[in-house]
Amino acid sequence: MSTSSVAVPTPARSRTTSRLALGQKLLTANALLIFAFFYTPILVLIIFSFNAGRSGQVWEGFSLRWYSELANDPAIFSAFTNTIIVAFVSTILSTAIGTMISLAMERHHFPFKLPLDAVLYMPIIIPEIVIALATLLFFIIVFNMVKNLFGITWGLGLPTIIIAHVAFTISFVATIVRARLVDMDPNMEQAARDLYADEWQTFRRVTFPLLMPAIISGALMGFTLSLDDFLITFFVSGPGSTTLPILVYSKVKFGVTPDLNALATLLLVFSIGLVLLAQFLQRRD
């Protein structure tokens, strides 16, 4: 005849279990409060962008009038055009340069590789206000040198915004592409060389197709950062180069209106869509 013993929880173990359960509940409540603190104002902004009246505090009914007025505002259309030009051009340049830097850092050894690697990640670590101020000082020095040497007067505008955005977003593109390069099997490239493929054929037929999802993800990330950037753009922009974030900032000085809520909602939805698409491509990769 066999007997089975039943483990009876001791009081100390019960207290420990209850403390763990209480700690998990407190952490969950803390996370919910933080999310509510950050996202409740955004939700209110989106809701009042559909308000029929001009008040930003009193709901007067559902309407799409503010979204239709955005399409007829020449200032918003000009800012939107500038934003798209800057975002597309800077994304193309930063994606191309960031991909080449990633290939050089992962596939080759050269002098000063370690310092260059540290410099590559500096825009991600350094506060954006420092980057904005340093970029502005750089342009002032270059403009003064060009004026003294050649007598040509340059000023801030769309070209300076594009250069600043490229310098800022290269690091993010390179980080995403390098992460893909680390996971790639080098034997696939070696197999292509064993089949008498030269460097260009190996890159075009093997390396580039494998890197494509990461390159697209990096491009989308760079496009989102360029689209939403305000601080760097504010420092290096000039007359006639107003972008949507700067326009939103200038309108906020006169109060928050439903048309401003509608513009911010469109920017928010577009940015979230790009980020989700980039995350989807990375997971699919």
Task: Give a summary of the structure in a few sentences.
By secondary structure, the chain is mostly helical.
Structural commentary:
- The chain is mostly helical and 285 residues long.
- The protein has one domain (73-284): MetI-like fold (Orthogonal Bundle).
- 78% of the residues lie in helices and 0% in strands.
- Helix 2 (65-71) packs across helix 12 (258-284), helix 3 packs parallel to helix 7 (158-183) and helix 9 (199-228) packs antiparallel against helix 12 (258-284).
- It starts with 10 loop residues before the first helix and ends with a helix.
Fold-level CATH name: MetI-like fold
Structural class: mainly alpha
What is the CATH top level name? Mainly Alpha
The N- to C-terminal Cα distance equals 60 Å
Mean of all residue-level pLDDT scores = 82
Count up the helices.
Answer: 12
**Helix-strand pattern:** HHHHHHHHHHHH
- What's the count of strands? 0
**CA gyration radius, whole angstroms:** 26 Å
**What is the assigned CATH homologous superfamily?**
MetI-like
**How much strand?**
under 5%
Gross geometry: globular
Question: Residue share in helices?
Answer: over 70%
